[in-house]
Amino acid sequence: MLARLTSLGKHLPLLKHSLNGLLFRNTLWMLLGDGIRLLLQMVYFVIIARTLGASGYGLFIGVVTLVAILTPFSSLGRGELLVMNVSRDKEVFREYFGNALFMTVVSGIALTVVAIMLGRFFLPESISMSIILWVALSDLIMYRVVEICGQAYQAFERLKRTAQLNMLMGAVRLVGALALLLVAAQHSVSEWAILYFLTTAVMALAALALVVYELGKPCLHLQKVFAEWRSGAYFSISQSSLVVYSDIGKTILVKFASPQHAGIYAAASRIVDVTLSPIYSLMSAAFSRFFQEGTSGIGASVRYANKLLVISLIYSAFAWLGLYLIAPVLPWVLGEDYRFAVEAVQWMAVIPLLKSLHFFAADALTGAGFQGWRSAIQVFVAILVAGLHILIVPLFLWKGAIVVSLIGDILLCCGYWGVIGYLQRKERIVRVTGQLTN
Q1: How far apart are CA 79 and CA 104, in angstroms?
Q2: To 10 degrees, what angle do helices 229-256 and 371-437 make?
């Protein structure tokens, strides 16, 4: 791993070139969109965290995390297939857009039932089924529609629109939080779950109308729905595994520790997520380009990833310092319920660095057509991390959850770069063999 980091220095002269033109503009738009959305979400987060308290917020996040594990399966990877195929051939947009919406609605309804059933086993009895229902309908169907609409513009490399959808999503969630604070009769988790669904539904309808108006109406191609189920399943498994190793600790804390501990851990995670925004923006802007570079093999995909990784690592160093500096003010902003979030944030300050190392490696594998490898690594890490959470969290509470999460990030770094090294060696052997044959 140290050798990998050292080798990145040779890409510094290419840094300016890598951010020229369309990628630079798209990254700026995603930074602007994600920045404004996160600013709005931070306001909404502060309102909800203070209004519900650490226990109420922890209960709500426990439900959200449980549903999030199922969320990738609500479209079975159709959004990613849309980006992959439309980025290469714009003429197939309507059918891939229609297939994505179709799979989201059909599987989303079925998974809502599954979420309610799983909630009875993995969540405290104090959480009513109605809360799980509203969160599931919101995140398994409505929010997925918003994401697919953003991916539609991403496939055309029109990240300006994707950024604007992100900003609007933050705005409608803030309106919902203000409604809970100023209008709702009771500041309860149940009332927030209803507002959470309503705001997401409004955003989904608006995003869908915009895509239909600007890019075209969706059409259904059932033959491709069935023919591409395996490719879509790889994306779904990958995303679900990502949620498991990143967030399963929140649900485990709600079940085996207390909602208050889950609230502290969730609040710290939210603060760290804010610092990850520029990295997510760069990833979104570059995602479709990975598929284009990947047509030349894993070597080309990795070279492109390394150019972006230099930027991300430099930023992550500043983010690490920033998290240490802002952590002590959290109890003043969120309330005394969150005084332990200071230490939690400082423990988690290294996360942007670790995620930078494996985010772009993962996209390099996907872009070169090795999503199966990526999914296999993520599933292995997710299973291991889930088991460690069950063993460690009841004993060490939120501190144990953070340690296990960091272990997951380290394992992903080692797994992705190890597989990339293997695939690059294999690619070089094939190339040399071909040259000798000729």
Answers
A1: 9
A2: 140
